[in-house]
Amino acid sequence: MKKKDPTVNPILNPESKKHSETDFNHFEVLLANRNSGIALETLRHDVTPIGMHYLLSHFDIPYVQDEKQWSLEIGGLVNNPMTLDMDYLKSLPQITQQVTLECAGNGRALFKPHWPSMPWTYEAVGTAEWKGTRLIDVLKTADVKTEAIQWVFSGADEGVDSGVQHDFSRALSIEMANNPDIMLAWEINGQSLPPQHGFPLRLVVPGWYGMASVKWLNRIEAIDYEFQGYQQVGTYVYRKDKDDKGTPVSVIRVKSLMVPPGKPDWYTRKRLLEAGETILQGRAWSGFGTPITKVEIGINDDWFEAEVFPANEKYAWSRWQFNWQAEAGYHQLKCRATDANGDTQPLEPPWDNSGFGNNCVQITEVWVEDDLSNV
Amino acid sequence: MKKKDPTVNPILNPESKKHSETDFNHFEVLLANRNSGIALETLRHDVTPIGMHYLLSHFDIPYVQDEKQWSLEIGGLVNNPMTLDMDYLKSLPQITQQVTLECAGNGRALFKPHWPSMPWTYEAVGTAEWKGTRLIDVLKTADVKTEAIQWVFSGADEGVDSGVQHDFSRALSIEMANNPDIMLAWEINGQSLPPQHGFPLRLVVPGWYGMASVKWLNRIEAIDYEFQGYQQVGTYVYRKDKDDKGTPVSVIRVKSLMVPPGKPDWYTRKRLLEAGETILQGRAWSGFGTPITKVEIGINDDWFEAEVFPANEKYAWSRWQFNWQAEAGYHQLKCRATDANGDTQPLEPPWDNSGFGNNCVQITEVWVEDDLSNV
Fold first, then answer.
1. Which residues does the UniProt record annotate as the domain Moybdenum cofactor oxidoreductase dimerisation (chains A, B) (predicted)?
2. Which residues lie closer than 8 Å to A356 by C-beta, 6 or more apart?
3. What CATH superfamily classification does A6-248 receive?
4. Chain A: nearest CA to B17, how far in angstroms?
5. Which residues of A touch B191 (CB under 8 A)?
6. B190 exposed, middle or buried (CB, 10 Å; 0-12, 13-18, 19+)?
7. Is B225 exposed, middle or buried (0-12, 13-18, 19+ CB in 10 A)?
8. Would you state the torsion angle of the CA atoms of residues A208, A211, A214, A216, taken in this order, to the nearest 10 degrees?
9. Residue of A26, A37, A52 with shortest CB distance to B194
10. A260 touches chain B (CB under 8 A)
11. What is the Cα B153 distance to its own chain's centre?
12. Is residue A99 a contact partner of residue A10, using CB atoms and an 8 Å limit?
């Protein structure tokens, strides 16, 4: 048997990671292969087609053969601890909502230097139509004790991060969890959740980055202290450097993306376009259902205002459109959204040590030719 | 307007790519984010869940709002040129088949040095249940002329690769296309094709690497010469070096993969496992429905034979299983399949200049601890 010294199991005793100045290592590529982003051209769809929504699974996707085996335990500081099955949950009043979710690490690869983790560029976003029941109705029945301050939501997925073994768990304050738009969901886009989206039951916290929407949800526990789980305090914290105490990642920052115009080069994904009128279009969204009030289009050094269409629903993205007269040559296209709070996207990535919350404007490089049939 | 010299549009006049010795560049990561691989733990499923099957789209995914707008033209050297709509195709006799498809570039990232392109490691595979009609029945109606030697299948997806503008097109010999198992498919896993799988119509060529299964299929043309399209002769060719005339990539090579045992480290995906009996399991498959006759499991330097279960259907993968007594320490696990032709997987990547056809054995690194509740 080939043995490395078992007293230094590198999973439980990992070396510290360091920022990378340039390229991406084998582990980052493994993560990019396993997780998946939206193809930017599918931003044309109001609701992201099944299988195109971004996916980030920290640990293994649990294998659940039959939802009849599943139960959701509600315990801790409650007067009425409960174990609920899927039949019961599906008998409750149902709601359906279109929700835009984005990974908090979206844009990590655009930081220079970048933190070695899932190297998203722009594509960790999607809008799905979720069906389920209101979380608050279920929690009310459990009757939380007055001394409780947080609910902890745990999934069946387990693993190790930075040497810490844990199940994926995230907390919300009792007050936050009273929001009637937070769902226990069992359907996406009219079908049962696929395994990778949390079958058979998940939390959907609209308006927050995706880490709050715990998949494979099997436990909810009321506690009277601030939850110290790894996914709450070890990561998903904005930090300027590794010693910064930081601020928890929560609500999605205002952002927009463009459907790349023209046609792509396979390898670089840069764009080739024929001169003439071109409809530029895309999506814009912000945190917690804050409406998008403005989208500006940057054509090289000039900015123009796009038409913004109202979102289908409170937590869904808005569509925007701009007619561009494309002239031959090289162009840098940008889009920049502003929301009803007056928040707008920065032109440069807002520094974060671990690469969270990067809502800087997308840049699309386009080469325009007068006649593409001639080249 | 910011202009690079428009006479050197780098999409139409690209620089030559070079092999990379070590890390992966920004373009490779963009491709990995946009395309998606199976999560290896979902190899447990006979049929890969919707949204988990590997996806490789060369160009943009076409936006098709309504299949009523779609038509399939059959022309070239035929006596009866036809334009078929989806209603007509769906009125033909239907077949349903489970087919394991793999990307020809799967394993590219494991070559040292590696070719800069989509940096798959192990995960570009999946088994879907396709529904459609037999290609041959449709082609017979078109009545190919005797001088024709190939059918060219074209998709609606278009772009540029290595400076060459083209629609994605692939050819099959007239004889090959007579295989009654080749399908025109409009459903995957009991539902209409999602856009990214080729909505509304695609070719499925069982047993061949995925590039043959043209998505968004809208034209089939009979020709009397060897097709010279970029996707036929510019890529998908096995070459020892760039000057090698090479051999076309076609049938899938024998391969196997393991469901990683234990639980993962988030970043490295290496595995942590508690000592004791562990069921190792996975999948094995080969080209053109050749049955898997043997799967061997490598535990460090020793090889053992796994139990292999018959495939559900001719072109679907087989499941294999092996009971392992895991002892504390570091282990390298491998799996190696052999098919009924006697072909077996190599231990090292079989060199290919562009990283095609890498069917070398997978290596899974596992750290076993006597008691995981103690660490």
1. 254-360
2. A104, A105, A108, A209, A236, A237, A238, A249
3. Oxidoreductase, molybdopterin-binding domain (3.90.420.10)
4. 10
5. 50, 191
6. exposed
7. exposed
8. 140
9. A52
10. yes
11. 17
12. no
**Is A11–B367 a contact, with Cβ atoms under 8 angstroms apart?**
yes
The answer, for B340 touching chain A at a CB cutoff of 8 Å, is: no
Distances (CA, A) of A156 to A138, A296, B107, B234: 20, 43, 30, 46
Which CATH number describes the domain made up of A255-369?
2.60.40.650
Chain A contact present for B374, CB below 8 A: no
For chain A, how big is the Rg over CA atoms in Å? Answer: 22
- Cα separation, B269 vs B296, in Å, equals 23
Q: How many CA atoms lie within 13 A of A205 on its CB side?
A: 22
A147 touches chain B (CB under 8 A): no
B165: closest CA of chain A, how far (Å): 9
Question: Which of B116, B123, B165 shows the shortest C-beta gap to A372?
Answer: B165
Helix, strand or coil for residue A80?
coil
Inter-chain residue contact A195 with B1, CB threshold 8 Å: no
CA A306 centroid distance within chain: 25
* Angle, CA A335 vertex, CA A331 and CA A338 arms, to 5°: 155
* Spans of all domains in chain A: 6-248, 255-369
B197 touches chain A (CB under 8 A): yes
Q: Is A301 on the interface with B (CB under 8 A)?
A: yes
Q: Identify the bridge partners of residue A78 per DSSP, sorted by sequence position.
A: A144
Tokens representing B269 are: 């995906």
A362-369 and A247-248 beta bridge pairing = unpaired
Q: Count CB-CB contacts under 10 A for residue B40.
A: 24
What length does chain A have?
375
**B189 φ/ψ sector (left φ>0, alpha ψ -120 to 50, else beta):** left
Per-residue pLDDT of chain B (375 residues; tens, 9 = 90+): 445 565 688 999 999 999 999 899 999 999 999 999 999 999 999 999 999 999 999 999 999 999 999 999 999 999 999 999 999 999 999 999 999 999 999 999 999 999 999 999 999 999 999 999 999 999 999 999 999 999 999 999 999 999 999 999 999 999 999 999 999 999 999 999 999 999 999 999 999 999 999 999 999 999 999 999 999 999 999 999 989 999 999 999 999 999 999 999 999 999 999 999 999 999 999 999 999 999 999 999 999 999 999 999 999 999 999 999 999 999 999 999 999 999 999 999 999 999 999 999 999 999 999 999 877
In this structure, which amino acid lies at residue A210?
G
Query: How many of the other CB atoms lie within 10 Å of CB of A364?
Result: 23
Chain A nearest C-alpha distance from B140 (Å): 34
Shortest Cα distance, chain A CAs vs residue B350, angstroms = 20
